[in-house]
Amino acid sequence: MVITWYGKNCFKLQSGELVIVTDPFVPLRGISHGEKKESGLSPFRGRADVIIRTTTSATSDKRQATSEAFEINYPGEYEVKDISIKGWPLTSLKSETPAYAEATAGRQNPKQPRTAYLVEIDELKIVLLGYLANADEIKDFQEYLEDADIVFMPAGGKPFIETSVAAKLIRQLKPSLIVPTLFDNPKDLKPFLNELGKNDTEPQEKLTVNKKELSKEKLIIGCLKT
């Protein structure tokens, strides 16, 4: 599997000809980590077989992928193209928090739940934690996420899960590979990497993941460039 990052929570996961895209977006002026600015990110515009959204935005629509893609927006169980996908709702954020503003920006229905997913493909168990704000949001289903091969984790700190809490959660989930999400530039990752003792981690253009090369004995941090 090859993993490419387009910024925020948007990733392309490609296995052979099969393409999964998470949280495709349209760059807008608006809230990003509590600040108003132009994102400057290039959205995903290629072909997708499956689109998984951890939160649904009125501005993040099918313009970013072909209409042939199977799109998943809500919690539930799905089987598509030999992929098993399970989604659970994260608990609601308080409306006055910056995390709420980030997670609901542009949405038609701000009360729509954010979702965490477990994706099983090519013998890999992949966890997408989306816009996770604290560890308690997954406590009701955490047992299903433990011992995953890959975890996509917010790593830029507030308004999402704090780095110290994220590091503790990683130790509980026991993945082989962590892919940091929701950070603006590499320096934002330093507190997260410090918590995990991985200060020498260098961002890569893309990640190539092989199940046989992953080990529970050695945690890998797969930092990516946009």
Number of strands: 15
Helix share of residues? Answer: 10-25%
**Largest sheet, described in full?**
7 strands, mixed
Could you list the spans in which at least 5 consecutive residues all have pLDDT below 50? 28-38, 58-66, 106-110
Helix/strand structural class: alpha/beta
Termini separation (Å)?
Answer: 18 Å
Lateral arrangement of strands in the main beta sheet: 8-9-10-11-12-13-15
Work out the strand percent.
25-35%
Q: What is the number of helical segments per DSSP (H or I, 4+ residues)?
A: 4
Keywords, separated by commas or semicolons:
alpha/beta; globular; 4 helices
Characterization of this structure:
By secondary structure, the protein is α/β, with parallel strands linked by helices. It is 13% helix and 31% strand. It is built from four helices and 15 strands. Mean pLDDT is 84; it is low at 28-38, 58-66 and 106-110.
Detail the topology: elements first, then pairings.
Layout: E1 2-7, E2 10-15, E3 18-22, E4 29-32, E5 35-38, E6 50-52, E7 70-72, E8 76-80, E9 83-89, H1 98-104, E10 115-121, E11 124-128, H2 142-145, E12 150-154, H3 163-173, E13 177-181, H4 190-196, E14 207-208, E15 220-221
Parallel strand pairs: 3-6, 6-7, 11-12, 12-13, 13-15
Antiparallel strand pairs: 1-2, 1-14, 2-3, 4-5, 8-9, 9-10, 10-11
